[in-house]
Amino acid sequence: ADCFKNKKVILFNTGPDTLIEFIWRKRHQHNFFSKVKQMGFYAVGGFNFSLINGECPFGQALNIKRSLYSSFESEKFDNISIPHVYALTKYHVEKWVNWLTTNPNIKYVTTNCQLQHCKDDVTQLAQAIKAILDEVPYLHIILQGFHFSHIREHFAGYMQRLHFADKYPLKQAQCHLKMTFNDSTNTFIKSYSPSEFVSDLTSYNFY
Fold first, then answer.
1. What's the average model confidence in pLDDT over 193-199?
2. pLDDT digits over 13-65, tens only?
3. C-alpha dihedral over 172, 176, 179, 185, to 10 degrees?
4. Which phi and psi angles does 188 have, rounded to 5°?
């Protein structure tokens, strides 16, 4: 689309549960996937239906299937669909590995990481991601909202197959802030760079 200035833009179907469920229920009524196709996105991520620790395993399985079905429906309207993959348990990991190896044409998947804030949740998520990558050697995963300060701690050795979607580096660049990673503290140091172009700062911050 012209508004994307020839960039390959991916639509992530993530958000608050109430919003996601509302759009899902009304998708046929409002021709959701057809309208998404007309907007000119390069690809469309599968719907992120919540999986929550301690909840009913049947509900978790149902939400995984609904997410996969959303990708199936999206493809019927000629969208390039990127399935959304999320795993809480070893059983979930095994099911995803089986599905991915049965569908070797799937080279990219997305994972929404925006709600993982405490150390245990981040570790659990990272372990599941690495377990899937270890079993499916050609797979790449796009992590949406994974906190930058945890990347090196959890994903050393996996960076060639991980891609990060996050607005934070861009927002910092728009404020003319340069983000430099400090290895000793595992944090980012910000410095004000008013003379640099926002495009250059954006590239630096994402790198």
1. 88
2. 998 999 999 999 999 999 999 999 999 999 999 999 999 888 889 999 999 99
3. -90
4. -95, 140
Give the three-state DSSP class for 190: strand
User: Can you state the angle between helices 119-135 and 90-102, rounded to 10 degrees?
Assistant: 30
Do residues 67 and 92 touch, judged by C-beta distance below 8 A? no
Q: Which tokens hold the place of 115?
A: 């709600």
Nearby residues of 134 by Cβ (< 8 Å), 6 or more positions away: none
In terms of pLDDT, which residue wins out, 100 or 169? 100
Q: What is the number of other CB atoms lying within 10 angstroms of the CB of residue 103?
A: 10
How far from 200 is each of 4, 149, 178, CA to CA, in Å? 19, 21, 10
Of 177 and 205, the one with more pLDDT: 177
**Looking at this protein, which amino acid is placed at residue 24?**
W
**Which position has the token pair 């999320």?**
86
What does the alpha-carbon distance between residue 85 and residue 68 come to, in Å, rounded to a whole number?
9
Strand partners, 108: 140
- What pLDDT was estimated at residue 4? 73
Q: Cα Rg for the chain, rounded, in angstroms?
A: 18
Q: Between these two residues, 101 and 190, which has the higher pLDDT value?
A: 101
What is the distance between the alpha carbons of residues 57 and 17, in angstroms, rounded to a whole number?
A: 18
User: What's the token pair of residue 85?
Assistant: 């993959």
